[in-house]
Amino acid sequence: MKESKVACTDPMSVDFASGKIQEDGSGQGAGMDDVRKGSGIRPGKYIILAVAVVVVIVTSVTWWLWPTSEEEEFTLPAKVCRGAFSGRALDSLFEKETGKLRTHIYRDFPDSPGEHPVCELSADVNKVAFRVEKRSEGGESREELKAEYKHVGELGPAHGAYSRSSGTISLYIPCPAEEKPHLEIFVNVGFNAAQIDDVHAKGAKKAVRKLAHLTGYTARTLAHKYQCEGADELPDGPVQLRAGDGKL
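The structure corresponding to this sequence follows.
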């Protein structure tokens, strides 16, 4: 009995009924072309499928690693609070900030100071707030503020105080009118980083200095906006803070 030798023959070409190998007209065993034809898959489709898988993997990795729009650098607009202040004046208070600037306006800030309007600016970390009031009778005197607060402030003819608990500096700015010689503009500026219990805490002094500079800028800007007669007497630079006798 002769042995039949089958070399490299695909098992799918075996005739299971007869136990023989199917042969084509040339006497050769069925090749890969017959197997592919039998399965209905062409060689090119394997290549297309492999390429598609690679594209999906590369796209997924790129999507995870590529920076998203949330990581874009934080920027301040040229003007804030309905055009009342320059965005550059607040750069140092929002340094290394993330997210987008959010603005909240109350009672038509900066117009109608008699209505106590407010402007609040905030991002992911820091927050700054401005409030202004027009007072016809005048506010607390220098002596009263010194007796009440631990730190009082001056900016030329304007006087006020720094509150550690609220992180604010307030100023009474002379703004006399013909019929109201004692009229004042009360400005209150807050910075959440300056809201501290210990002025010697890390970063506290720096935050208070930034607030003092912003308050000085705010006082000069609003005094000119409201056409106060003493606006030109307000000096450049920050509000000068010194020790008071109070506990606030």
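The first strand starts at residue 14 and ends at 15.
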